[in-house]
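Objective 1b of the project was to move from sequence-level analysis to a structural picture of ligand recognition. The entry below was assembled by the postdoctoral researcher (A.K.) and checked by the PI before modelling. It contains the amino acid sequence of the target and the SMILES of the bound compound, S-adenosylmethionine.
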Amino acid sequence: MNYRIVVTTAFGVESVTKNELRKLGVRDPKAIEGSISFDGTEEDVMRCNLFLRTAERVYITVGSFHAETFDDLFDGIKALPWQNYIPRDGKVIVTGKSKKSKLFALSSCQSIIKKAILVRLMPIYRLRTFDESGADFNVEFSINEDRVTVLLNTSGKGLHKRGYRTLVAPAQMKETLAAAIVSLSDMTPEKPFIDPFCGCGTFVIEAALSALNIAPGKNRDFDFLHWPFFKKETYERLLNEATEGEKQDQELHFCGYDLDPAVIKLALYHARQAGIENKIHFQVRDVRDLSSRFSEGTLCCDPPYGKRLGDLKEAQDLTAILGERYRALGKKWSAYVISAVPDFERHFGKKADKNRKFFNANELCRLYSYFPERQQ
Ligand SMILES: C[S@@+](CC[C@H](N)C(=O)[O-])C[C@H]1O[C@@H](n2cnc3c(N)ncnc32)[C@H](O)[C@@H]1O
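Corresponding predicted holo structure:
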């Protein structure tokens, strides 16, 4: 079956995910704020869930129609071919949002949509009641200027939940955003990679998974895996493809440092969970002592901003120390620093070659990129 697939992303990450999709063989992906859509098959849905590092979730579009009243909504939903997606025992969960529309009472819309889906399915399955004892089908609606769009969430939990990060560190970065920043950096498997403020290890682990070509979704569950109309053999084949593509022999010089011994313990645990504890190195170290025996490499980090951890003055001082230690590493090192510290470049002591906006934990930040000096 062919679907209109919708992949959602965080604000600012759309172009990165679009590149990933192109590398996965998707033709003509169309990006709008926070999502990318394209035509694809069941295999594409599975491939996106398994291999995308920077996306939030993967959806199938069930339909779209105009609605101004609850009757319009009921009729529009009932007219969609739900039997193509939901089996006789499916558990239907409806959530949604509305913007600039006549229908805005979300809980009423939710109940009407669910009722319309069941009214559509019951005669088809010859049922009087729907026991919903089977797999989850998360239906998400959005109403924008009276246009209703209905999507089916194939991922289930967000794709940032890879399965390795089970313990929580203060101010940890979302795995998908860390992966997007790594992908915007000049990280290569051959060059050293350092996060001097590594917390529970997210940047280093995401960089290593990417460098070793380990599929981010290989150790987790997805909603589609429980759906009868998605063939298990296809997913098994993709998993084999993923395993065959891994570069397990690649040696890495990837390190994470942090002042706090407690978060280093978490980072080590997460590296073990991700199955890459022998490939990467974590150690307690103050950024003041940052150094490397290598003359080139990539620095990537989110130092404290002063809002969530510590105060602003301390964050500014740490930014200055980071800038100084970065320059001491040598001219062939690059740096990618995500920060919300006002006037970051002045504190860091150098104007960035590039900067772009991101939201990290709902906070507007900038990724400051410093490229290595070109060799003459
Ligand atoms: C925003 S958090 C980094 C979160 C990390 N990216 C993650 O995903 O877990 C900033 C980290 O900087 C560490 N830190 C604060 N002062 C430091 C210093 N002087 N040297 C090294 N690390 C420091 C904190 O312990 C904290 O873990």
